[in-house]
Design goal:
By secondary structure, the chain is of the alpha/beta class. Helices cover 44% and strands 14% of the residues.
């Protein structure tokens, strides 16, 4: 698995990431989503996070975050 900093770099370059199984913290996902915002990247996050966490992640991503519910 890539480090959070590596994921941020990939997202900031416009690369999409499926982070549903990455085990990243909410704060990490917020930083990655913020890096992807406005870059055309898609970021997939786990639906197992709390609703409040998902709202924070989605807000940081400004439309690039997708939630996967298993």
């Amino acid at each position: 698995m890539k480090t959070t900093n590596e994921c941020i770099q990939i997202a900031a370059s416009g690369g999409g990431l499926d982070l549903t199984k990455a085990g990243k913290s909410t704060n990490d996902l917020i930083m990655i989503a913020a890096a992807a915002a406005g870059k055309g990247a898609q970021i997939w996050v786990p639906g197992s996070k709390s609703t409040n966490d998902l709202i924070q992640i989605a807000a940081a991503g400004r439309g690039c975050v997708f939630v996967k519910f298993d």
